[in-house]
Amino acid sequence: MKTTENISLGGYAFIIETDAYKDLKAYLEDIRNGFSSDPSAEEIISDIEERIAEILKEQTAEGMVVNRAMIKEIRTRIGNPKELAQEEIETGPTEGAGHGGSERGKEQDRKGCRGRRLYRNIDERVFGGVCSGLGTYFCVDKIIFRLLFLTLFMIGVFGFDDGAFSILAYICLWIAMPAARTDEQKREMRGKPTNLKSYKAKDFDFAKEVKDAADSPAGRTLTRAGGIFLGIILLCIGLSGLLGGILIPALPEGFGNMLSVHAEMWEVPEAVEGMISDILTGGTFWGLILTMTGIGSIALIYGGIMLLFGLKSPSWKPGLVLFIAWLISLFAVIAYTVMLVADILPSLMTA
Predict the structure, then answer these.
(1) Domain boundary residue among 189, 215, 241?
(2) Are the C-beta atoms of residues 288 and 219 closer than 8 Å to each other?
(3) Pairwise CA distance, residues 215 & 223, whole Å
(4) pLDDT digits (tens, 9 = 90+) for 71-112
(5) Is 97 among the domain residues?
(6) Count of domains for the chain
(7) Taking residues 286-306, what's their average pLDDT?
(8) Which of these, 95, 90, 116, lies nearest to 106 by C-alpha position?
(9) Parallel, antiparallel, or unpaired for β 65-66 and 12-17?
(10) pTM summary value
(11) Domain carrying residue 53
């Protein structure tokens, strides 16, 4: 029976065998020694710890214990700490004193751009992260690409086309460019690869991308604006329905007058005319119509208020209750109408 340790690595908690813990501790110490001369050593080591934790998180389900084989695989995937440290020093930007140090830093930044991979930078996104990803890849300010897309869209709207080109181009880039989600992908995006094997980018997940877009600053703004617009429409329809309900009590008399006029024109038998008149002037039928209209209007008003003010529904879900009540009233109207028609049909057949 092997003893275990509880550790926290890269923000995750793990249960690890004691022997594996010693191996991991020694490996991290080797990495620390390899980066000891780098001014950003602590940041780089923390970054590597996060990558190690991410790998272990993928390999261990809840409750699984980290063993020595897993640590050995991590050492193989990441590589020799000394080689990794040398690569980081050569590719990473270095800050120096004075003008010369600044120029060296800029030169290393330009070199780093050559090894960058194209990803959507979702950490600095406004909508889908396309412009921030392009800016990171080409080593220019992301605002330039945002202004470019906005300018193309405005030119299309005000003159040369309908603005669809810029929108289509953005959508195509959004689909083609994978999002930089893992730590390794973010490092590749900034031109700082390591020996750690890249995670394979998943196929374009429409549901995931829609959720990401909705969670972005621009997405939240558009969602809120859409909610306000839809809320106003629902409120208008609901209030119109309530006002229209006031006219329903006056409808039976009007329908009765229309029936008497058309019955003479169409030579409808008196018995049939009487039965139809009873339906159209009866209180039960119009009472059901009034109930259905009232419940539906209240439901629309409730939904409009919730959307307009961005409110959360109570735990007892009044919107769902109103919808179910409206469905019941609708079925009641349909059932009553079918019953009345069934009573009239024999008379029509014999007429």
Answers:
(1) 215
(2) no
(3) 9
(4) 888 888 777 666 655 555 555 544 443 444 444 444 444 444
(5) no
(6) 3
(7) 90
(8) 95
(9) parallel
(10) 0.44
(11) 4-91
